[in-house]
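just leaving the lab so this will be short. below you get a single protein, a line of residues and a line of whole numbers that encode the local backbone shape. id like you to explain what the token line says about the fold, in plain words if possible. thanks a lot i owe you, the record is right below:

…
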Amino acid sequence: MTTCFFNNVYLCFLPVHISHDFQPLNNNVFNTFKVIYWKELIKLNTLTNSTPMDKINFIYYYIKIRKKDITKKTI
């Protein structure tokens, strides 16, 4: 907190378990990310029912969607 103060960084604390309306990143960045992620999972599921969502698949889809969705514009 001291470092933030000396560098003119203002911390904003949000209470835990509040409505998503008050959490700014959920409304823009992560909300669209979740929508795209679920669409990709549905596509994967329709292609094959036997593909497990293991760590490798999770990371693959995470990176793929992150490149598409988390950009300077969305942030």
Summary: Helices lie at 2-6, 24-47, 55-69. The radius of gyration is 17 Å.
